[in-house]
């Protein structure tokens, strides 16, 4: 499998196995199937596994623990996350470390290669919004605590979720010490869907460009925009949901995929893999069939610039 350099993390496979599918965020699966998917991903050459406590209330991390019984195969690395919110600055170090400890316990390992803030970084505090961490708190307490975890050998490096509030995220991406990696929306719709809070200033393409400009490794997420860039949503969503709006917008893309002679999901993954800013694409697969489709998409190689332009034109996207 092709490998690319993920910032200071170093070389990784161009595909990363994400934990959302393993934790049944993207539709139902079984523990047995999830474990088999993890093992097959590693056999296929995927050497980075990205999980989080929030994926199935720790289920994705438990799947990793069961898959390898506490001993990761040679060369395989893991990243996990912490949903912090906006606590008192004094409490941040202990909060982060407890989250890390709990994640490592579920995975049956003692070290995380990458530890990411699983919150939106925002310009200002958002009252009653546990998904938001203001830049001021990040600078004062979060970044120093993450750096301390690196110094003490608890983690190899740290990163951020770089989705909402492009201006705030760009500020963090450009200030030293910079994140080793950022999880950025990377899809042909240039859409974060429901990940972007209402009225937030979210510009995925600009965030990708900022990460590249500052030498931050990019873990591309939402390649199929939570199912909007596939042939059908695999879970119940209300008609007014942002993903459903993206699904309808993507209808011309599905027709184009048929002309290309491949599935919509495959073509969407190839598009994300062909974006010059993206170092590795985080997969949301929940079973081996979905995994195999993505591995085949990676093996098919990058799309040509003219193909990229044709695909963008189909959905009216500049992303």
From TrEMBL:
Domain spans labelled NADP-dependent oxidoreductase: 15-314
Domain of life the protein comes from: Bacteria
InterPro entries: AKR2_Oxidoreductase, NAD(P)_OxRdtase_dom_sf, NADP_OxRdtase_dom
UniProt cross-references to PANTHER family, sorted A to Z: D-THREO-ALDOSE 1-DEHYDROGENASE, NADP-DEPENDENT OXIDOREDUCTASE DOMAIN-CONTAINING PROTEIN
Entry protein name: Aldo/keto reductase
Species per Swiss-Prot/TrEMBL record: Natronosporangium hydrolyticum
């Amino acid at each position: 499998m092709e490998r690319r350099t993920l910032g200071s993390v170093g070389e990784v496979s161009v595909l990363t196995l994400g934990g959302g599918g393993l934790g049944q965020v993207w539709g139902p699966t079984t523990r047995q199937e999830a474990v088999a998917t993890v093992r097959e991903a590693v056999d296929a050459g995927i050497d980075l596994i990205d999980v989080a406590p929030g994926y199935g209330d720790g289920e994705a991390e438990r799947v990793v623990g069961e898959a390898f019984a506490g001993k990761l195969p040679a060369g395989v690395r893991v990243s996990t996350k912490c949903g912090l919110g906006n606590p008192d600055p004094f409490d941040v170090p202990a909060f982060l470390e407890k989250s890390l400890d709990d994640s490592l316990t579920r995975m049956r390992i003692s070290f995380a290669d990458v530890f990411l803030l699983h919150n939106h970084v925002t310009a200002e505090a958002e009252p009653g919004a546990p998904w938001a961490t203001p830049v001021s708190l990040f600078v004062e307490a979060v970044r120093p605590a993450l750096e301390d975890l690196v110094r003490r050998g608890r983690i190899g490096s740290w990163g951020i979720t770089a989705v909402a509030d492009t201006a705030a995220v760009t500020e963090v991406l450009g200030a030293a010490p910079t994140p080793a990696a950022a999880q950025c929306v990377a899809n042909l719709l240039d859409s974060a869907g429901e990940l972007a809070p209402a009225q937030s200033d979210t510009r995925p393409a600009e965030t990708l460009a900022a990460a590249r400009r500052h030498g931050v490794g990019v873990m591309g997420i939402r390649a199929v925009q939570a199912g909007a860039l596939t042939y059908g949503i695999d879970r119940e969503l209300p008609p007014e949901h942002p993903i459903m709006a993206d699904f309808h917008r993507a209808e011309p893309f599905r027709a184009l995929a048929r002309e290309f002679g491949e599935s919509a999901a495959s073509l969407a993954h190839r598009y994300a893999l062909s974006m010059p800013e993206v170092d590795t694409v985080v997969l949301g697969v929940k079973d081996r069939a979905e995994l195999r489709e993505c591995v085949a998409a990676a093996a098919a190689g990058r799309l040509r610039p003219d193909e990229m332009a044709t695909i963008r034109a189909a959905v009216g996207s500049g992303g």
